[in-house]
Amino acid sequence: MSRGEALETGPATVAPAAAATTPAAAAREDAEVRATRGAFGRLLRSELRLVLGRRRTQLLVLLLALVPVLVGTIVRATVDSAFSGQGPGFIERVSGNGLFLVVTALFLCLPLLLPLGVSIAAADAVAGEASAGTLRYLLVVPVGRGRLLAAKAIAALTLVVVAIALVTAAALVTGWVYFGYGDLDLLSGQSVSAAAGFARMLGVAGYVALSLTGLLAVGLFFSTLTEVPIGVIAATVVVSILSNVLDSLPQVEAIHPFLLSHHWFDFAEFLRAEVSWSLLGQGLLVQLAWVAVFGSLAWARFTTADITS
Amino acid sequence: MTPTATRPDGALDGGAVGAPVVRSEGLTKRFRNGQVAVDGIDLEVPRGAVYGFLGPNGSGKTTTIRMLLGLVQATAGRAWLLGEPMPDGGARVLPRVGALVEGPAFQPYLSGRANLERLDAVDASAPRRTSARRIGDALERVGLAAAARKPYRQYSLGMKQRLGLAAALLRPRELLVLDEPTNGLDPQGTREVRHLVRELAGEGATILVSSHLLSEIDQVCTHVGVMRQGRLLVQGPRDALGTADAAQVVVTTEPGSLAQARETFARLGLEETAVDGEVVAARLGAVALADVAPALVAAGVPVLGLEIRRPTLEDLFVELTGQGFDVSG
Amino acid sequence: MNRTLLRWTVPAAAAVAVVAAATIPTLASADSPELPDRTPEELAAAVVEAEPVPMSGSAVYTARLGLPEIPAQMTGGADPLNLLSGSSTIRMWTDAEGRSRVSLLGTTSEYSVVTDGPEAWTYASSSHQVVHLTLGPDAQEHLADAEAEHAAAEAAGTLPTPQDLAQQLLERAEEHADVTVGDAVVVAGRAAYQVVVTPTDDGTLVDRVVVAVDGETLVPLSVQVWSTEATNAPALELAYTDVSFSAPSDAALTFSTPSGAEVTEKVVELGDLDAAPEHTGDVPDGVTVSGEGFATVVERSGGDLEALLTGDPAAVADELDHPLGGGPGEELFGDMGGGTELDRAALYEQLTTPVDGGRLLSSTLLSVLVTDDGRILVGAVPGETLLEAAGLA
After folding, report:
1. What is the secondary structure of A193-246 as a DSSP string?
2. CB-based contact (8 Å) between B196 and chain A?
3. For residue C139, what is the enclosing H or E element?
4. Which of A125, B7, B187, C11 gives the lowest tally of CB atoms within 10 Å of its CB?
5. Average pLDDT for residues B112-141, to the nearest whole number?
6. B244-310: CATH superfamily
7. Within an 8 Å CB–CB cutoff, is residue A293 touching chain C?
C-alpha cells in the first residue's frame, strides 16, 4: 500500500515503436507509448470521482453532517428547559459556546457512526468492485494491483476526511448561528481566545480523522478477502466495537495501549491547558502500527488473490 | 525491428511471424477446495486466427481465460500472451489485449461513457489526449453512441454486452479475448457481434472467442479448441478437425426406392447407412463423392435431392466426448 | 507460488516490527540501571523528609481492589470516584512554592485541584462547577504558615500523587515494617531505587509496598501496594509515565474561574481540618482504635448512618475519613465526598455485601464494615477481622 509499491508495479520502460502500418503494429505502438507522467494522478482522480460521486456515499456523508445540526437544534430548543445541560460529552457546554458543538458532534459520531462510514468506504473499495465484477476489468486494463490498492486506500481515506470535515464545518456553522463563538473554556478550567479555540477544534477534527486510519486499513484488508461488501462492513464495525469492549475490560489492560480505539478519545487533549503531544503522538503511532500491519496484509492478499468474481 | 525483440528478459518476440499469440504449457488450476478446474492444457492460438474456444459451462474455459489474463494464478504450467509470460508481463502486454470476461460488468450508476472513461483513466499507458476520441469511436463501433449518456443500470442486456465490447475496443488491440460475447444478445445482436468479430479479424487482430453455443462460433472461427472437464480434448484448424471422411452423403428419394438406394450405398462401400423417412444417409468415408450420383442413377434410384453434410462442431463434440453439448446450462 | 509466499512475508515482517517496537522499550527498562548504593533507612527517610521540588508529570493510577467498576455514566466524567477501580491518568504540576495543580483526566473531562498557598480550587469540567476553598480566620490564626498552605488543599480532598502516597505509606513504615532496597528500576525513563516495605504484622491485607525513588532527586516516582490476596499484580499502583523536573509554566499553576461556572465558596474552619487531632495526638470522641501499624482497625460509633445511607456526601466523607491514618484509604474513601451528584445509596448498595448485622465492603486492600447499630469499622485487614472486632463473628 506504500508509494514504493505503486512505483514498483508501474509499467516497464519500453521505447516508442517505429511507425506502424498494420493495426496489430499500431496496437503495439500505442501500448508501448511510455506510461504518461501523472498516470497515478489520473487513476487517483478517477477513483475520487467514483467514490465521491456515488449517491449513496453522498447521502451518508450528508446524514453525518446532520448530526451537529440536529444536536445544535435540540440544545437550542431545550436551552431554557429542564433538560438544559444534560447529556453526553460536552453537550452542556454547547449553549455557552458554539465551538463546543464540534467536539460534541465528533464525540457522538466517533463510537459508531464514523467507524460505520470507514467500514463502508473500505467495503466499497475492493469488495464492492469485486461484487460488481468491475475489478476484473480494471485489472485487465491493466493496472498494477498494488497501484490500484494504493489509489483505493487514498480515495477511501479522502472520503473519511471529507465526512469529518463536513461534520466539523456543519458544527462550526450551526454553533455559530445558534450560539456564537466566545472564549473557549478548557477542561482544565483555563480559557483561550475564540480564535485559538477554533484552531483547537480543527486539531480535534484532524486527530479524529487520523485516528480512523488503522480501522480503515483493517477494513481494506477485510475488503480484499471477500466479494461481499456487507460482510466487510459488518466485520469492520465488529472490530471497532470489539476494540471498545476490550478497552473497557480491566482484565486485559496489558493490551489496552495497543487497541485501535484506545486513543480515539484522546482528541480531548486539544481541550486541556497543556496539550500532551506525546500522548497524541502515541495515539498516532498506534494507528501507524495498525496501518503498517493491516495495510501490508491487504497488499499481500490483494496482489496474490485469484480474482474469480 | 519491434521493441519487443530487444527486451533483456529474453521473452519470445510477440511480433515474430509464426509465433503463437496465445500459448500455454501444462496450464493447471487446482482450487483450494481441491477441485481441478483446468488440468494441464497446452493452448496454441496462431497469429491472425479466430480461435473458437469451446466447451460446456464448467469445463474450465473461463478459468483458463482468467489465467491467461493474469486474474487467476496457475497452480502449475506457464502461459504467454503475445510472447510475454503471464502474469509477469501483464503490464506490458495487456494494453494490447482487449478482453470480455464472463459477461460485462460496470458501475451501475455511471453512464456508459463515464464507465469507459474510468477504464481509460486506469490505464497508465493510454494516451490521455486521445481518450475522448477513442471512447467515442468504441461506442460508435458497437452502436452505443446514442445511449452513451444513459446510466449503465438502465441498459438492456444487449446494450451491456455491447458496452463490454466497447471497453475491449478502447485501444487498437492485437488480441481480443472474448468470453461468451453473444450471451444475452438477440439474434440481430448475435449477427452484429459475428460481423464485428469478422471485421476485427480482417483488420489483423487475433481473436480468442469462447462459447458454449457451438453454432455461433462455427460460422466465424478458423481454429477450434474443445474443452471438457478441464482438459483440452482437441485443437487445430477448423478444417482439419473432423476428418473429411466424417462427411455424410444424404439422398432424398421416393419411398419405394429407399431399399434400392440403401443397397447401392452398400455396394459403393459406404458405412453407417441409415434410413429416415424419404432420406437415406451414409458416411462418405473414403468413397469419392463423384461416384455416388452415377451409381444411384445406374441403379435406377430416382434422386430427388443429394447433399453432402460436413460435421458441425456439435457433431465433432459428440464424436469427441460421446455425449451431447449442454446447451441449456 | 514462491512469490506469493514472499508477499506474505511483508505483513509478517511488519507485525514483527510492531511487536518489537512495542516490547523492546519494556525489555530495555527491565535491565537494572546502575545507581550508587544507599541504605533502606536513608532512602525511606529521604522520601519522608523530602521537600517538594518544582516538577510536572503524568502518572497512571491503577486500582485492582476487586471492587466493581463504577460506570462512567454514574460519575458523568472525571471524578475522584473513578479511583476506586480501573485505571486513571493524573497530571500534576508544582512549583514547590505552594502552587500546584493536580488533574484527574477523564475521557472527555477533567477534575482539577489547584492550590495557591492558603487557597484552593477544585474544578470539575463535567459539571462545570468550581469549589473555592479559603481558610477561616481562626484556622489562619492557629496554623503556622506551612500548615496553612496545605490545609486548604487537604480540605479540598486531594488527588493522589506518587509523592503524597509514598510519604503517607513510608511514614508508618519505620515502626511497623521491614524496609529493604530492591533492584534499581527505570520509571518514566529515569533510574530509580526501589524501596520495599513489608509489614511485620501478618494480620493486614497489605503484603508489601514498593516505592520507586528517583536516583537523582529522590522524588518518589511510583508506588505499588501489593495485597496478600492477589499476587500477580499490585492492588494499587500509581506511577509516573513521564516526568520533568523543571518549573511549570504560570498558566498551568494559576486558576481563573471559567465563565458561567457555578462557584461554591467554602471557608475551611479549624474544626474541619483533619490535621488537628493528628497534631494533638487525641482520638476524637466516639472513635476507638485497635491493632497497630498496617493492621489498625478504626471503629467509629454514633455516626450519622442515615445521612450516609441516603448519600449525604459530607457524611460519607466524614465517616470514611482516615481509616488508614492517611493511607490509600483516605484517598479512596475520603474522596467519596467529592462534589458529584450521583446516586450514592445505589453506589453503597453496589459496593457492599450484606452480612449478619450489617453491610461489609471487602476489597483486596481495605475492608469497611457498617453495622446495623450504627458503627463503622475500617481497616486494611480482612473482613473477618472487622466482624470479630465488631463482635459480630
Report:
1. -HHHHHHHHHHHHHHHHHHTHHHHHHHHHHHHH-S-HHHHHHHHHHHHHHHHHH
2. no
3. helix C137-142
4. B187
5. 93
6. YebC, transcriptional regulation domain (3.30.70.980)
7. yes
- The answer, yes or no, to whether residue C367 has pLDDT greater than 90, is no
Chain C positions in Cβ-Cβ contact with residue A255 (cut-off 8 Å): none
Fold of C274-389: TATA-Binding Protein (3.30.310)
From start to end of chain C, where are the E strands?
Answer: 55-63, 86-94, 99-105, 110-116, 119-124, 129-135, 177-187, 190-199, 206-214, 220-227, 236-244, 262-268, 287-290, 297-300, 353-355, 358-362, 367-371, 376-379
Query: What is the domain partition of chain A in residue ranges?
Result: 3-10+37-304
CA dist., res. B147 & res. B111, Å (int):
9
Q: Which residues of C touch A297 (CB under 8 A)?
A: 11
Task: Please list, in sequence order, all residues whose beta carbon lies within 8 angstroms of the beta carbon of residue C36, skipping any fewer than 6 positions away.
Answer: C215
At A72-108, the pLDDT tens digits run 999 988 877 766 656 665 777 888 889 999 999 999 9
Cell numbers 481562626: residue: C138
Cβ under 8 Å to A: B residues 77-106: 90-97, 99, 101-103, 105-106
CATH number for the domain whose boundaries are B21-240: 3.40.50.300
Q: Quick check: A103 contacting C, CB < 8 Å?
A: yes
Rounded to whole angstroms, how far apart are CA atoms C327 and C380? 9
Nearest CA of chain B to the CA of A16: how many Å?
8
For the CA atoms of A48, A53, A59, A60, what is the dihedral angle to 10 degrees?
-20
- Measured distance CA(C208)–CA(C210) in Å, rounded: 7
Cα–Cα distance for residue pair B109/B152, rounded to 1 Å: 6
Taking the model in full, what pTM does it have? 0.83
What pLDDT shows up at residue A62? 94
Domain with CATH 2.50.20.10 in chain C: 40-253
Subunit contact A27:B70, Cβ cutoff 8 A: no
- List all residues of chain C from 48 to 77 with a beta carbon under 8 Å from chain A: 58, 62, 64, 69
For residue B126, what pLDDT is reported? 86
- Determine how β-strand C367-371 pairs with β-strand C358-362: antiparallel
pLDDT at position C332 over 50: no
**ipTM of the complex as predicted:** 0.82
Please choose, from the candidates C222, C229, C162, the residue with its C-alpha nearest in 3D space to the C-alpha of residue C196: C222
Q: Is residue C302 left, alpha or beta, with left meaning phi > 0 and alpha meaning psi from -120 to 50?
A: left
For the four alpha carbons of C14, C19, C22 and C26, in that order, the dihedral sign comes to: negative
B30 → chain A, closest CA residue: A306
Q: How many CB atoms lie within 10 A of CB B65?
A: 24
* B contact residues 1-60, partner A, Cβ 8 Å cutoff: 1-4, 14-15, 47
CATH dotted code for C40-253:
2.50.20.10
Inter-chain CB proximity C18 and A293 less than 8 Å? yes
Q: What pLDDT is attached to residue A191?
A: 86
Q: Considering only the beta carbons, identify the residue of C121, C252, C260 that sits closest to A96.
A: C260
The per-residue pLDDT for C166 is: 81
- Per residue in B19-32, pLDDT (tens digit) is 899 999 999 999 88
Going by pLDDT thresholds of 50, 70 and 90, the confidence category of residue B321 is low
Contact C103 A92 (CB under 8 A): no
Nearest chain C CA: its distance from A58 CA (Å): 30
Q: Cβ of A12 under 8 Å from any chain B Cβ?
A: yes
- Shortest Cα distance, chain A CAs vs residue C234, angstroms: 13
3-state secondary structure of C62: strand
Chain B residue numbers with beta carbons less than 8 Å from the beta carbon of A40 are 124
Q: Do A189 and C112 touch (CB under 8 A)?
A: yes
Segment 55-94 of chain A within 8 Å of chain B by CB: 55
* Greater pLDDT, A305 or A85: A305
